[in-house]
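@channel sequence for tomorrow's demo:
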Amino acid sequence: MTPILYIGNRNYSSWSLRPWLALRWGGVDFDVRVVPLGGPGYQQRQMAQVLAVSSSGTVPALHLGPEVIGDSLAICEWAAEQNRRLWPEDALARAYARSAVCEMHSGFGAVRSHLPCNIRRRTGARELDADVQREVRRIEAVWTQLRSRFGGDGPYLFGAQRTIADAYFTPVATRFRTYRVPLVSEAQRYADTLLEDPDFREWESQAVEEPWSMLEWDSY
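structure tokens (generated this afternoon):
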């Protein structure tokens, strides 16, 4: 049975983009179903349409027949079980990759709150508050340090092969582009690499065509 990945609006759902990329990069055959987010119950994780496919009230959710994996990182880890190249081969590099992913998975709340994911939007440059600036500098440091130590001649964090770490930072690259956040040169080159990825470009083109709008994010 072909796995089914339930996702939120492509334009806004950074959590959905990450496992979608991992599954695509891992060569996994899967189908996609979009559950438009927003409206009554959304903030409380009580949307009926989401609860119908995910008991946590959130998407993404990966359906494997009767089994449901309901967390972005867990879905990425399942994808890595199908294709081990989604993590670096070297054990130390793999540990650093997991550390970066976990930091992104659980942190950077100011960036999430003040620079919400909106792939098709472009704003003018804005002044960032101290918390956002601090987190942006931390993300820059993670990118430049991993590229310097493990990137070699490849364009990604761990060389020529795309990993879950790259999938996790792709939505961040879109946020920096949307809000015109200036980056140091090495970080900007890496962000540009992520935004030029053909699989991301496919996601982006579909995000642009989506009919749904979350007005509170579009007006930020």
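heads up for whoever presents: The chain has two domains: 4-83, 85-202.
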